[in-house]
Amino acid sequence: MGSREFDIIVFGASGFTGQYVVLDLAKRVLSMPNLRWALAGRSSAKLHEVYAKIVAALPAYSSQPAIPIVLADVHNAPSLDAMSQRARVLLNCTGPYEYFGEPVVASCVQHGTHYLDITGEAHFILEMMAKYHDAARAKGALVVSAMGFDSVPTEVCAAFASAQFPPLGRVATTEVLMGIDSSHGHATTYECVVLMANPSHRAKTARYYDAVRPPATKTSQGLLSRYLFSYDARIGKFAARFMGADAYLLELSNPGVETQVYFYVQHFGYVILLALFGLLLGLLGWCEPGRRLLIKYPSFFTAGAFTHAGPTQDEMATASFTHFCIARGYQDVAKAGGALDWQVKVRLDGPEPGYVATPICLVEAALVVVQDEVSAKTLPRGVLTPGAAFKHSDFIAKLQQRGLQFSVLSAGPI
User: Fold this and answer.
1) Are both 169 and 253 inside the same structural domain?
2) Residue 111: which H helix or E strand, with range?
């Protein structure tokens, strides 16, 4: 990659999540005067409104040159090319990615621009891997989706657990249990969930997953594949198998390890509510008219959990997430193939997942990529998972500095 006008461009900066991303980036780079960045989107007026919000929240920007604005539209390929050629790293916050993602990925790959996004749409992520991995490697571009709550906490929680094994040890199985304490989300996130109920998307997910997945790995002590909620005594919660992007990406990031991702809830009452929503999603999500109905009335179908207004500042201040990871394997790799004899259990605590933790994860990843681009150039290239892309970087350390708390609950013989 040659010299670029900007280190980072945030595309979709005027969207609901995009505004939180640019505010987090603006705070972060106040102490980095040499970092060049810009806001991007299709509406100049909306982008200027975002800039005004940044100045209001961070008065230091009132005495600095205005943050540059780049106009680009996913339906205008030349505008995307003009944008991607100006950046080292492009952060794409324009979803649903099924509709708006691929043109941006294609442009970044073509021009050797590093690309990060925050989608949790598994079919989109896997399709981009299958279509663009070789081209991205050839162009020297790093393309990583799911750099928000989907799926960074799952990936880094598993990586942290693996790092607690003895030097000669080896992980054989990894289970991540995801949990959130948050009552509200934005309608766009909900729309992505509804779109994933489309049978053609599920078929596409399976097809592209088969194209990119490593060979299946079995151990002498297989993991549970529980599709219904059941009580997990290890954490004292009700948990069920999670079918979202985290499950696919965790396996892709850990070849040779049997993996499973579960979603847990605090109380049995939530099990009933989720079962009712799952029933509605199953009844209406299989056909286009049903999906349109679900998308049109997010608050009604989710009992107020998702709205077009999104969460308030007070709601975000009190929300959080907690993940657990239980990794089992061998104290000494020489014993691999026998009974598993070592177990590590860790915990990851973080802030509100969608609009606090997600910007933190995306911004810190972008800064890691920028630093790598101007110095060592040791990050891998291609269309990769978060775990594979940042495995040998200081990404986890940066997340810890931003307030994500990793703790070891236990480590020792099984």
Assistant:
1) yes
2) none
